[in-house]
Design goal:
With 82 residues, the protein is mainly alpha-helical. It has a domain of 54 residues. It contains three helices and no strands. α2 packs antiparallel against α3.
């Protein structure tokens, strides 16, 4: 038995390149799908899914963007303090 050609020739390179391109495209699609699910609409968007001002303040307070004092001041400004 003689193995004069160890590789698969140009077909091997073509197939390998297509597989590599396919994997790259798959990774890009997966990243966009999972990154897109985390995106939120801007608060300024009006519609049925828009948040109330209290919900926005609650979220910002929970994330630590507002101090307790700022949170209470803004609630009072909106007339939402009990």
């Amino acid at each position: 038995m003689m193995w004069g050609n160890y590789g698969m020739g140009s077909w091997g390179w073509a197939f390998g390149t297509l597989v590599l391109v396919g994997v790259v495209i798959l990774v890009i699609v997966l990243v966009r799908v999972f990154a897109g699910s985390r995106r939120r609409l801007p608060v300024s968007t009006l519609g049925a899914n828009s948040l109330s001002p209290k919900q926005i303040l609650d979220e910002r307070y929970a994330k630590g963007e507002l101090t307790s004092e700022e949170y209470r001041e803004r609630l009072a400004t909106l007339g939402l303090m009990p």
